[in-house]
Amino acid sequence: MRRALVVAALAAAAFACQAAADEVPARTAAPRPGAPVFDSAKAWEHLRQMVLLGPRPAGSPALRQTRAYITRQLAAYGLTVQEQPFTAQTPTGPVAMVNLIVRLPGRRAERILFTGHYDTKLFTDIAFVGASDGASSAAFLIELARVLKDQPREFTYEFVWFDGEEAVIDWYHKLPDGTTDNTYGSKHYVQAARKANALTSIKAMILVDMIGDRDLRIRREARSTGWLKDAIWGAARQLGHSRVFVNEEGPIEDDHVPFLDAGVPSVDIIDLEYDPWHTKDDTLAAVSARSLQIVGDVMLAALPEIEKRAR
Questions:
Q1: How far is CA 60 from CA 29, 64, 102, 133, 167, in A?
Q2: Predicted confidence band of residue 311 (pLDDT cuts 50, 70, 90)
Q3: Is the pLDDT of residue 307 over 70?
Q4: How far apart are CA 63 and CA 282, in angstroms?
Q5: Pick the residue with more confidence: 5 or 125?
Q6: Which pick of 39, 122, 146, 178 has the fewest CB atoms within 10 Å?
Q7: d(CA 307, CA 131)
Q8: DSSP secondary-structure letter at 171?
């Protein structure tokens, strides 16, 4: 039964692929000469390749394949991927997980983190391929690393693909250590950074999650750091994307929370107004390259102000 579900999901993904690829847009704003340029066609292809691997929950063979894919793409750009393995104690027992990290050294050792997750929610009754919820953030980070790798940098840029963002059983299920069944990778990263006395060197943490929605609508996350929200939403306004980056606020629990709790300025860029969320319909047909382009353009436009405020 599960094999049949996977085959059906992959067939639907293949059917949607050409239509979605045909709509890859021109960039949403003309870049200034010499400015970095985000290419949503490249990001879309990364997203598509991950979706074709099928469901990718933490600890699964498909997630190992996803890890290998991400590593190959970054290696092709001349970037070195560092694995951060750990064992998460989940409600169903220990699960081996791996965060992926790429660093682009800057003039200063202090870091700006660009993060997202690359796992998908575990379901036993549907083939959940997570086109927006998992693939969009993982694909976006690959392309953003390519765009920024040859740019001059004041700060060191660090890209982190978190494993285990999704709950194994239930988001609010309490674990023996008092934490909840979610965000295993980001919690481990913060614990490791604290142990290494490296938390204070993180000047900003920028999280992207579920940014592929065709009808993209990103609210200001209530707990996120104000100056980071102002920089990003200000850039969106200047680019004419205020209908996507809206000024409404609402709280969201995500991979940024462990960083906020540790005192690191952090922001979550996420669209939770996404009907296919955690359903079999989170496929290529529900996502858009144009949405990836908008977020990429806004991110690059906001970076100068983020660096200025992070000093």
A1: 40, 7, 22, 17, 14
A2: confident
A3: yes
A4: 17
A5: 125
A6: 178
A7: 31
A8: T
Nearest to 185 by CA among 269, 87, 265: 87
Query: Do 113 and 202 touch, CB atoms closer than 8 A?
Result: yes
CA distances from 293 to 27, 73, 126, 239 (A): 7, 19, 30, 12
- What whole-number distance in Å separates Cα of residue 59 and Cα of residue 119? 9
**Domain ranges for the chain:** 2-25+32-215+253-294
Residue 147 backbone phi and psi in degrees, to 5: -65, -40
174-208 residues labelled b (16+ CB within 10 A) or e (exposed): eeeeeeebbbbbbbbbbeebeeeeebebbbbbbbb
Asked if 232 and 239 touch (Cβ cutoff 8 Å), the reply is no
Number of neighbouring beta carbons within 10 Å of residue 224: 26
In one letter, which amino acid is 101?
I
Q: Which residues contact 293 (CB under 8 A, 6 or more apart)?
A: 24, 25, 27, 28, 38, 40, 43
The domain 2-25+32-215+253-294 is classified under which CATH number: 3.40.630.10, 2.60.40.10, 3.90.230.10, 1.10.3540.10? 3.40.630.10
pTM of model > 0.85: yes
Kindly report the CA angle at 272 between 100 and 193, in degrees rounded to 5?
30
Q: In 10 A of CB 212, how many CB atoms?
A: 31
